């Protein structure tokens, strides 16, 4: 099976930087997704990391360490619209292409 | 505009009733998925289909059924055997062949009367 852990809730201030961590235990790891989901809406794709290291996309960056079973999503220059749930999902190697999702981290950005 | 549509946005079910949730995509994606989302829980896979006329059970298939008669459509039926159907249901699709990313529809919220 797979264990995926991420904090339930985080709060941060507008304009600040926040790091959302995700740890996982799985056999045959292939890659790790981050999705953003606003309340009552569809998850939207943010990133997919396969190799170790940091990938930057504008205000959002995602980091992966395969040896440590660890990833984080870094959000810079926080805006109120960044208040959402952030879902970490792990994909195993093999042909099923089905990721396993963590419970999500609810981020609240306040003024 | 290409995308995934789900209907209805809200659906009410009476005790003992079967209801069907619609999922349509015009992205020409091969694979389609149904997930259930409950408060405080991650997305849980109900059924998935990698190709037309074929589908597989996910982790929580009991009380649900699907069909995949057309590439663009993957309806989910919540049967009376599903005793706790109140949840947010999300449909997703994936292009296929080595494309990893799933794209999600807007969801259907199912409530029991």
What does this structure look like?
The complex is a heterodimer of chains A (111) and B (113). Chain A has strands at residues 3-5, 9-13, 18-25, 29-37, 44-49, 53-57, 60-65, 70-75, 84-92, 99-101, 105-110. Chain A is mainly β and 111 residues long. Helix content of chain B is 0%, strand content 49%. Chain B is built from no helices and 11 strands. In chain B, a hairpin with a 6-residue loop joins strand 4 (31-37) and strand 5. In chain B, 35% of the residues are buried. Chains A and B meet through strand 4, strand 5, strand 9 and strand 10 of A and strand 4, strand 5, strand 9 and strand 10 of B.
Helix content class of chain B: under 10%
Number of E-state strands of chain B: 11
Give the biggest beta sheet of chain A. Answer: 6 strands, mixed
Helix vs. strand class of chain B: mainly beta
Order of helices and strands of chain A: EEEEEEEEEEE
> How is the quaternary structure best described?
heterodimer
- DSSP, total strands of chain A: 11
Radius of gyration of chain B: 13 Å
Order of helices and strands of chain B: EEEEEEEEEEE
Question: What gap, in angstroms, lies between the N and C termini of chain B?
Answer: 35 Å
Determine the structural class of chain A based on helices, strands and strand pairing. Answer: mainly beta
Global morphology of chain B = globular
Salient structural properties:
heterodimer, A: 111 residues, mainly beta, 6-stranded mixed β-sheet, 5-stranded antiparallel β-sheet, 0% helix, 59% strand, globular, B: 113 residues, 7-stranded mixed β-sheet, 11 strands
SSE arrangement:
The complex is a heterodimer of chains A (111) and B (113).
Chain A (H helix, E strand, L loop, with lengths): L2 E3 L3 E5 L4 E8 L3 E9 L6 E6 L3 E5 L2 E6 L4 E6 L8 E9 L6 E3 L3 E6 L1
Parallel strand pairs in A: 2-11
Antiparallel strand pairs in A: 1-3, 3-8, 4-5, 4-9, 6-7, 7-8, 9-10, 9-11
Chain B lengths: L3 E4 L2 E4 L5 E7 L5 E7 L6 E8 L2 E4 L6 E3 L9 E3 L8 E8 L8 E2 L3 E5 L1
Parallel strand pairs in B: 2-11
Antiparallel strand pairs in B: 1-3, 3-8, 4-5, 4-9, 5-6, 7-8, 9-10, 9-11
């Amino acid at each position: 099976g797979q264990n995926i852990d991420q904090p339930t809730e985080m709060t941060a201030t507008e304009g600040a930087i926040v790091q959302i961590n995700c740890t996982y235990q799985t056999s045959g790891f292939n890659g790790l997704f981050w999705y953003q989901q606003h309340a009552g809406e569809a998850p939207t794709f943010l990133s997919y990391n396969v190799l170790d290291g940091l990938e930057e996309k504008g205000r959002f960056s995602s980091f992966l360490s395969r040896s440590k079973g660890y990833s984080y999503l870094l959000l810079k220059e926080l805006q109120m619209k960044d208040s959402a749930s952030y879902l970490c999902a792990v994909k195993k190697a093999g042909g099923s292409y089905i990721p396993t999702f963590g419970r999500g981290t609810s981020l609240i950005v306040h003024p | 505009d290409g995308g995934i549509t789900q209907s209805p946005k809200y659906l009410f079910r009476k005790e003992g009733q079967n209801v069907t949730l619609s999922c349509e995509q015009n992205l020409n994606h091969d694979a389609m998925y149904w997930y259930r989302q409950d408060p405080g829980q991650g997305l849980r896979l109900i059924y998935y289909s990698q190709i037309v006329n074929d589908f597989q059970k996910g982790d929580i298939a009991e009380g649900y059924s699907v069909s995949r008669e057309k590439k663009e459509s993957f309806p989910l039926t919540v049967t009376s055997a599903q005793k706790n159907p109140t949840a947010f249901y999300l449909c997703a699709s994936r292009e296929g062949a080595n494309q990893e990313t799933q794209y999600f529809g807007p969801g259907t919220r199912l409530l029991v009367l």
